[in-house]
UniProtKB/TrEMBL annotation:
Domain Metallo-beta-lactamase: 29-227
InterPro entries membership: Metallo-B-lactamas, NDM-1-like, RibonucZ/Hydroxyglut_hydro
Species this chain originates from: Coregonus suidteri
One family name in Pfam for this protein: Lactamase_B
Name of the protein in question: Metallo-beta-lactamase domain-containing protein
PANTHER family: ACYL-COENZYME A THIOESTERASE MBLAC2 (PTHR42951:SF4), METALLO-BETA-LACTAMASE DOMAIN-CONTAINING (PTHR42951)
Stored SUPFAM superfamilies: Metallo-hydrolase/oxidoreductase
Highest taxon in the source lineage: Eukaryota
Amino acid sequence: MSATDWYAHKSLGEGLYWIQEKFFESSNRANIWLLRGSHQDVVIDTGLGLRSLPDYINTKGLLGDDPQRKNPLLAIATHAHFDHSGGLHQFEQVGIHSAEVDALANGDNFETVTWLSDREIVQSPWPGWSAREYRVKAVQPTHILQEGDVINLGDRQLTVLHMPGHSRGSICLHDGDNKMLFSGDVVYDGAMIDWLPTSRVSDYVSSCERLVGLVDSEQVDQVMPGHYHTFGAKRLHRIASGYIDRAGTCSARFSTFAWRTLARLALRASNTRSAC
């Protein structure tokens, strides 16, 4: 299967494209965002990496044909989990938060939570493909991101907001001028996952409090999440404040502990911490 068959995209206007892996039918299917700037273009999250995302972007002409644009496409993962980082190795420029650099550089499929089944891939990317063989390929990041870093695209800037909880290195990218938030798995319109091996509920609560603050200070109008559909400020406030309210309950703490224990056992059975 070619890259042009594997992916599909939708233009949301003003240089923003929403890309998805058509044949990865799962709640784990991550949104891939392509944002064009006057001097630099950026891909936010890269999916599984089973087919070439750069080939798709180029074949579909999503970067245009301006000969003056010489900066390589920058790929940023909002965090290291496999459904967001699997395609990073396909790019010359790669960015991720400093807390998860080692996971990528070492090909650590435990920390990248590499957990894929055959039933999630409804059409094989090539003959004989098997989910058992899937691994996140090791890649050395060229851009090690920290809280407050600004990614300058020329006519727009993205500010890095370190929002741990789902994972230790989870980030959002905030386009303050356009009041747009690329939220990764920090927040999306679904059940927020805080029970993975590197998740931490107390950090997640703090991150959600920060999200509520962004809404209250009118810094976000639109959220481009890591999964499912886009949503607005009111929904963001409701999701984040709802998590804060639930996180401290006894039932939530017990559920988190039980799921984390099961996740550790399952991941250690199927992945090692050694480079792949």
